[in-house]
Amino acid sequence: MKIAYVSYEVSPFAKAGGLADVAGALPKYIKNAGEEIYVIMPFHKNIENNFDISKFEVVKTDLIPNSHTHKSPFSVYKSYLEGSSVVIYFIKTDSLYDSKNIYDEENIFLKTSYFCDSALKTIKECEPDTNVININDWHTSLIPVYLKTHYLQDNILKKIATILTIHNIGYQGLFNPEVLNQAGLPNYLFNINALEYYGKINVLKGGILFSNIINTVSPTYAKEIQSEEYGYGLEGILKVRSEDLFGILNGIDYSIYDPLKDPHIFHPIESYEDKLKNKTSLQEYLGLTKDENITLISFIGRLFEQKGIDLISKIMDLLLLNDIQFVLLGTGDKKYEEYFATLTKLYPKKISINITFDVDLAQKIYAGSDIFLMPSKYEPCGLGQMYSMRYGTVPVVRYTGGLKDTVSEYNSKDKKGTGFGFHEYKEADLLYTLMKAIYFHQKRKDDWTNIFENCMKEDFSYEKTAKKYIELYKIALDKKRGH
Ligand SMILES: Nc1ncnc2c1ncn2[C@@H]1O[C@H](COP(=O)(O)OP(=O)(O)O[C@H]2O[C@H](CO)[C@@H](O)[C@H](O)[C@H]2O)[C@@H](O)[C@H]1O
Q1: Looking at ligand 1, which residue's alpha carbon is closest to its atom 26?
Q2: Contacts 24+ apart (CB under 8 A), 95-103
Q3: Is the CB of 358 under 6 A from ligand 1?
Q4: Which pLDDT score is estimated for 28?
């Protein structure tokens, strides 16, 4: 079986969030499990700034997408995923993918739709024996739409099965109906049984209706998105497709996130003592009071309500009455960026607010914190809690989506469990749970080292995940062939 894995972001080439981590890792493990797989992404401008592109091979030039009305030619560059032999193709065209923020809203429909049609052209030209295309989120959701309109009679493309992976249903790609013309797609798609959604075009809806199989990134989230609370308006069509909807938990790349070899962290972590060395080095690095006994709580992520940032901001003053330190790394909603920046001025030795995107600092924080906070409103899978556990940092989460599937409540009687959590999306519940975790950290040292050890023993490696994706690709192919 040969699979094309198509993503708008792939780590380390371009990363805005968790999708990049998955796209940069999962294909390697699928290949290790014996399948043929390659990746396609846009050639975002920042790739040129951060990588030596003279080492990339130019495999095609002057290609023009077949259906799209934007007829600028594109070239296909080829390289490999980090530390592997998995091929990655970059679609490079003049000036289209040159914004600093890859999801910059200006021309985003043009950029994503052009990418979808060009990806299909790339498959035809470079990998015509492809069997399955795994698309990801709304940015690549027009691929099955093109396949089921323009390419129904195409000898190569008509045989390919599609699977849509939903990493976040909160982002759907809503546009005015005129965009269909720009993409070169037929107007009849503006129809309630296709892409129409309350007078707009909903690109993710197209992905859901036109793909052979759909999956999301944890079993719990696969159930949740069929409800009004979590479906963001798409619960109805997801229920219609529930027989074809699966949930596969993401993994983390153990070859990169390795507490013994990670070059970003201060000290390799094997024991709790090593962990404390990382903690005091982090305190020093961030200009916080250096003290092993203070509970160091951290948050890394996009500063949006999905991540529970509103709950965190509501409890901050009460939380800071305790003997704790708070470290934040993230960018997002200006309202929260400003709120946290102001807080730094009030508690300079107790908090460190880093409004930036910094992969190196993220690793140091995962390794150096006592508690990692993830009180998400919804969380398709969540990678932060898994990275934390890998480095012996105890997660405090809201039990939703993938957080529910990966964190278990610590119980001091049987010494089992990896963290602490709450269910209702309420600031009082978050504060209570954090107080419990702080109590365990400061007063119950034996329990705390048990939790540390339980976290370090968890297995979130990608092998299991890759096997499940391969099963899903087979189901998609069977469906496509009408079995
Ligand atoms: N300022 C910053 N500096 C450095 N690194 C930063 C950073 N802000 C975030 N990151 C990194 O970005 C990644 C975020 O991944 P998550 O899975 O936690 O969330 P995200 O919502 O982006 O992903 C979506 O897709 C993933 C993948 O499927 C799902 O796990 C998740 O639930 C879903 O919302 C982590 O690797 C984190 O370290």
Answers
A1: 18
A2: 96/42, 96/70, 96/72, 97/42, 97/43, 97/44, 97/45, 98/44, 98/45, 99/45, 100/45, 100/46, 101/16, 102/8, 102/9, 102/14, 102/16, 102/42, 102/44, 102/46, 103/8, 103/16
A3: yes
A4: 98
Question: Which listed CATH number (3.40.50.2000, 3.30.565.10, 3.90.1030.10, 3.90.550.10) goes with 272-460?
Answer: 3.40.50.2000
| Entry field: residues in the chain | 483
Confidence band (pLDDT; 50, 70, 90) for 482? confident
Q: Is 251 in the pocket of ligand 1 (CB under 6 A)?
A: no
The reply to whether ligand 1 has any atom less than 6 angstroms from the CB of 384 is yes
Q: Which CATH architecture has domain 2-251+463-480?
A: 3-Layer(aba) Sandwich (3.40)
Q: How far is the CA of 168 from the centre of ligand 1 (A)?
A: 11
Q: Where in the chain are the domains?
A: 2-251+463-480, 272-460
| Cβ of 247 below 6 Å from ligand 1 | no
- pLDDT tens readout for residues 70-123: 999 999 999 999 999 999 999 999 889 999 899 999 999 999 999 999 999 999
- Chain centroid to CA 293: 33
Q: How many helices (H) and strands (E) does the chain have?
A: 18, 18
Answer yes or no: is the C-beta of 252 below 6 A from any ligand 1 atom.
Answer: no
Predicted ipTM of the assembly? 0.98
Q: How do residues 266-276 score in pLDDT, each as one tens digit? A: 999 999 999 99
Cβ atoms of 15 and 383 within 8 Å: the answer is: no
- Ligand 1 centroid vs 67 CA: distance in angstroms? 33
Q: How far is the CA of 180 from the centre of ligand 1 (A)?
A: 31
Whether the CB of 301 sits within 6 Å of ligand 1: yes
pLDDT of 7 > 80? The answer is: yes
Question: What does the pLDDT look like over 262-321, one tens digit per residue?
Answer: 999 999 999 999 999 999 999 999 999 999 999 999 999 999 999 999 999 999 999 999
Any known ligand binding at 15? yes
Burial class (CB in 10 A: 0-12, 13-18, 19+), 397: buried
Residue whose CA is at the smallest distance from ligand 1 atom 31: 382
Three-state secondary structure call for residue 258:
coil
Positive or negative, the CA dihedral 155, 158, 161, 167 is positive
